[in-house]
């Protein structure tokens, strides 16, 4: 049978109305409606006095209403609902993105001028010039960068093994409904909700008992951060381990492989990409903590790379201190806070990139 | 070369918690034979199959009462290590399950590598080749051994799983509906393979396909269940030709002739 025959047969048939059609708005109607509502809203506001926020809000409302009205007249109710809800979803998305983009813009645009090599490579301090009797205050972030890395690093070293091993216990060893597993899950849930300042107070009072007064140290702050980090690591690792198909465990057991080897070489190996992602999210969550570090490690402008003695600074604490207790040159102090904020954002982005690379490297081969 | 072994089951009951899933099974499986388990879904064929290498213990609450002897050694005797049992009694599952993080060659070597045994490279290469040849897969994959196991087709993956199982040189090979997820061509490939493996291994296969049972097996066991919540039982166990042409029990005849199930 050739296409010619089909064509002839189609031509021979009398054209007939298709009972499956319904009314349809023009193809780019949504764009026209958007342009129209922006225009009408601008016109309305020009009478009452123009401002951008009011203009956007008014156009969004006009757009949704007109879209619903036109669609329900020309098309049908289902299509109208579909268009209005799709519009609402887009509006919600834009609302969610606005604070994100505006924060990022604010941080970067204000912070970049503060960033130079001196800011990164020196710590804050004051110099006294004896000939002019003038004190110059220098702002640097080196002590905070080092402090952030050390404190977060120690917190990660404490939390990751504890968190992942707890998740392994919950998923691989505990039988469903076991009282111990239920207790652990409950405690993890409770820990997730602990306010960070409470974690800081806990670490501070713990080290006050152990070390005595003036117990400020980077390690103490790390302990506070691990209190916050462990539940996040447990939760995310648990979900990741649950995703490993039971069939892979069975395949391994059926080869006469012990439980230990099955868990370390099959289950954890298969889940490693997800585990790394979960750990990274936990680190990103605690690296910007301020209150617990402020309480447990205090703050300091001196360079200190010893986590066990003396106060330590982190980028988040430096931001807080520079805003709350500015030096004599307030503008310069504020600028150093913005610079520290940009550094913190850059640090988180770098860690995320590393995590993505690691996750991609370990991802199951078929999925790459 | 593996030494094929005789399996003897005496009055075996399988429980899930308090629930009796399979009741009173006794049978003897001769070495170098293929035995097929047939019966309606939920009658306990797979459950019983798993008790032959203690794989049922993976399910919480599952336990057995009775005896399973492999060449006279009780699998459920005191002090028996299930890990050692499973090294002698290998298993192939319903859905092909190659390890997604490993290449084709590594999947074959998984039993060795995961057990922390060191093996010189040349021995490992030999083992990969003989196992894949044993599973009739070598010619199809010999040029891409480094590719992930999941890059193969379903039928090839299943043969890869069989190669993986025979690479640890078990004495007995259990197969739980190995062809139910495969197309007829792949099924034929697996059935041919079973025919060859029979020369060296004792094979037990669960199948829903009665033609498959007649094609591959020497003896057939028919399991049935009286109703939901009742335990599954072994109804009849005989040579395949007897079961399918001249069974002793009416229920067997009804089942194999398609009157129910």
Automatic annotation (TrEMBL), chain A:
Signal peptide range: none
ABC transmembrane type-1 domain segment(s): 145-355
CDD domains: TM_PBP2
Main localization category: membrane
UniProt keyword list: Cell membrane, Membrane, Phosphate transport, Transmembrane, Transmembrane helix, Transport
Topology class, membrane: Multi-pass membrane protein
Locations listed in the record: Cell membrane
Pfam families documented for this protein: BPD_transp_1 (PF00528)
Chain ranges passing through the membrane: 28-47, 53-73, 85-105, 145-171, 183-209, 215-234, 266-287, 337-359
Protein name, entry field: Phosphate transport system permease protein PstA
């Amino acid at each position: 049978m050739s296409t010619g025959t089909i064509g002839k047969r189609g031509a021979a048939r009398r054209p007939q109305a298709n009972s499956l059609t319904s009314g349809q708005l023009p193809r780019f109607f949504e764009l026209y409606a958007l342009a129209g509502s922006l225009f009408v809203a601008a016109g309305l506001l020009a009478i009452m006095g123009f401002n951008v926020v009011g203009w956007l809000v008014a156009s969004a409302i006009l757009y949704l209403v007109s879209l619903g009205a036109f669609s329900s007249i020309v098309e049908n109710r289902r299509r109208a609902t579909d268009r209005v809800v799709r519009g609402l979803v887009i509006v919600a998305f834009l609302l969610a993105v606005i604070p994100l983009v505006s924060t990022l813009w604010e941080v970067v645009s204000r912070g970049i001028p503060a960033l130079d090599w001196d800011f990164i490579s020196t710590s804050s301090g004051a110099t006294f010039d004896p000939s002019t009797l003038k004190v110059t205050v220098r702002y640097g972030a080196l002590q905070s960068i080092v402090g952030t890395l050390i404190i977060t690093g120690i917190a990660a070293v404490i939390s990751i093994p504890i968190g992942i091993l707890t998740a392994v216990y919950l998923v691989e060893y505990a039988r469903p409904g076991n009282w111990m597993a239920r207790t652990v899950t409950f405690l993890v849930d409770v820990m997730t909700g602990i306010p960070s300042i409470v974690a800081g107070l806990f670490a501070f009072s713990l080290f006050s008992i152990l070390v005595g007064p003036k117990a400020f140290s980077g390690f103490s702050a790390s302990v506070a951060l691990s209190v916050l980090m462990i539940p996040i690591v447990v939760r995310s690792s648990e979900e990741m381990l649950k995703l490993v198909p039971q069939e892979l465990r069975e395949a391994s057991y059926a080869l006469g492989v012990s439980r230990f080897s099955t868990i370390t070489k099959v289950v954890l190996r298969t889940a490693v990409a997800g585990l790394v992602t979960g750990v990274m999210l936990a680190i990103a969550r605690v690296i910007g903590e301020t209150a617990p570090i402020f309480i447990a490690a205090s703050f300091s402008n001196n360079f200190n790379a010893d986590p066990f003695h003396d106060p330590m600074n982190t980028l988040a604490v430096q931001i807080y201190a520079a805003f709350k207790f500015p030096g004599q040159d307030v503008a310069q102090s504020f600028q150093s806070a913005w610079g520290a904020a940009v550094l913190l954002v850059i640090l988180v982005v770098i860690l995320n990139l590393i995590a993505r690379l690691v996750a991609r490297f370990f991802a199951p081969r078929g999925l790459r | 070369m593996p030494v094929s072994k005789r399996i003897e089951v005496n009055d075996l009951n399988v429980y899930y918690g308090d629930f009796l899933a399979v009741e009173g099974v006794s049978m003897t499986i001769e070495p170098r034979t293929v035995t097929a388990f047939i019966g309606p879904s939920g009658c306990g064929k797979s459950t019983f199959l798993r008790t032959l290498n203690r794989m049922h213990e993976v399910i919480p609450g599952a336990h057995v009462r009775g005896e399973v002897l492999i060449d006279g050694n009780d699998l459920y005797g005191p002090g028996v290590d299930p890990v050692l049992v499973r090294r002698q009694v290998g298993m192939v599952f319903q859905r092909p399950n190659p390890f997604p993080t490993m290449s084709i060659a590594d999947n074959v070597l998984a039993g060795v590598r995961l057990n922390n045994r060191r093996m010189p490279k040349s021995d490992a290469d030999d083992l990969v080749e003989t196992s894949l040849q044993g599973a009739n897969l070598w010619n199809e994959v010999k040029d891409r051994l480094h590719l992930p196991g999941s890059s193969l087709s379903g039928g090839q993956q299943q043969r890869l799983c069989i190669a993986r199982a025979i690479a640890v040189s078990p004495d007995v090979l259990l197969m739980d509906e190995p062809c139910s997820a495969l197309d007829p061509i792949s099924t034929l490939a697996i059935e041919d393979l079973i025919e060859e493996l029979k020369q060296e291994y004792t094979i037990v296969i669960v199948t829903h396909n009665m033609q498959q049972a007649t094609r591959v097996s020497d003896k057939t066991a028919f399991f049935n269940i009286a109703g939901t919540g009742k335990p599954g039982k072994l109804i009849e166990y005989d040579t395949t030709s007897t079961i399918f042409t001249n069974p002793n029990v009416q229920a067997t005849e009804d089942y194999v002739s398609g009157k129910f199930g």
